[in-house]
Amino acid sequence: MFEEITLKTPGNPAQFLKDIEVDKSVKILNNKDLITFVESISQMVLIINRQREIVYANKSFHDFFGTKDIRHVVGKKPGDSFKCKNAAMAELGCGSSRYCRSCGAANAIIEASKGIRSTKECNIHTTANEAIDLRVTTSPITLGDTGLTLLSIFDISEEKRRISLERIFIHDILNIAGGINGLSAILKEIDNPNDMQQIADTIENASNNLIDEIQTQREFSSAERGDLTLHYTEEQSLKILIELKKRYSNHLLNHNTPIRVKSTKNFSLVTDKVLLKRILGNMIKNAIEANEPNDQISISCVGNEETVCFEVHNKSVISEEIQAELFRRFFSTKQKGRGIGTYSMKLFGEKYLKGKVWYTSSGDKGTSFFFKVKA
Questions:
Q1: Three-class SS of residue 119?
Q2: How many CB atoms lie within 10 A of CB 28?
Q3: 337-355: b or e for each residue (b if 16 or more CB lie within 10 Å)?
Q4: What does the alpha-carbon distance between residue 360 and residue 160 come to, in Å, rounded to a whole number?
């Protein structure tokens, strides 16, 4: 326990604190009433100073990470302790990146610094390509003349995952099933064989999309649980691109946006074909939904003996606001509760296929999504 630590103990927490006086830190660590209260709470609890540095973490917090080493968190900022990818990429860590402006936890801490108790939700994309959903309640407290903030943190990842997946799954299935039902009703009233064939083809495409949505949800759920089984085969890049063009040229989302295969060279790679097509398919669907006037989507691949890099490009530009949230789970530019496409690119591409997913977006060059993987 922290109250057992004194300044004479080697490796004591005081040496990890930054920008806070040692005597004030000792007051915090030796306040038995505060420690007893914090340890009685089943949720994760952090106490941070005015510089947002952690000066105490309760047992529930350490249990979440499977460690009892206080050096894991003391002196760090909350996002750094959770291994937030945005914090890791920022020079000054948690709270200093442009993405932190939309972080619920960061905003709750700001409100607490103004003396306001606040509860907000945040989603953390970790350096290990995992997503954690948290509900954070911040409360301002004062110990002597030291102003502190108490963070009560509840992991709501499972709750968010279940609710969002159910909403997304039901929404997509009902949309596709409704389309099939409508086309089937029309088919019974048509006598022209050519029209009947055209509608029958559309029903077949819709049925394939329905099956694909069910498989997508199953794969995504397995991937999030960590029990997705991969099936590696030797594939040809050009064949993959041609199959994707055929599929998404006739997709229900596509309203006459042309898809062009730019690549002429073919590259061999050993991969899970289902996941590869899922990643690239999500990139294409994003491009279709951007729906710029007179736009076209190009898909291509370059490579060598060691790596293969796929690219999906269109003329649209992603706003800075959207870029800040792009790869977060369940973020969408559409209605609330949508959006697993970009997050699943990272999940499938980086965690499972061990590649790298990224994008570029600018007014003069448009938007490109890339997936680079070993050949």
A1: strand
A2: 22
A3: ebbbbbbbbbbbbbbbbeb
A4: 29
Residues with Cβ within 8 Å of residue 46, at least 6 apart in sequence: 54, 56, 57, 58, 61, 73, 78, 81, 150, 151, 153
| Structure tokens, 236 | 């040809």
Residue count of the chain, please give it.
Answer: 375
Q: Name the least confident of 88-102, 131-145, 181-195, 203-217.
A: 203-217
Helices (H), the chain: 22-30, 32-39, 59-65, 78-81, 85-89, 104-113, 157-187, 193-225, 237-249, 273-290, 320-323, 341-346
pLDDT in tens, 37-72: 889 989 999 999 888 989 889 999 989 888 766 667
Helix (H) or strand (E) holding 74: none
Amino acid identity of residue 175, one-letter, is: N
Tokens 């402006």 map to which residue?
101
Instruction: Say which residues have a Cβ less than 8 Å from residue 230's Cβ, sequence separation at least 6.
Output: 272, 275, 352, 353
DSSP letters for 298-342: EEEEEE-SSEEEEEEEES----HHHHTTTTSTT--SSSTT---HH
Q: φ and ψ at 287, to 5 degrees? A: -65, -40
Whether the Cβ atoms of residue 168 and residue 338 lie closer than 8 Å to each other: yes
**φ and ψ of 135, to 5 deg:** -110, 115
- Whether the CB-CB separation of 258 and 246 falls below 8 Å is answered with no
Name the residue with tokens 């007014």: 363
Single-letter amino acid code for the residue at 361: S
Q: How far apart are CA 363 and CA 343, in angstroms?
A: 24
**How far, CA to CA in Å, does 343 sit from each of 34, 81, 247?**
40, 22, 22
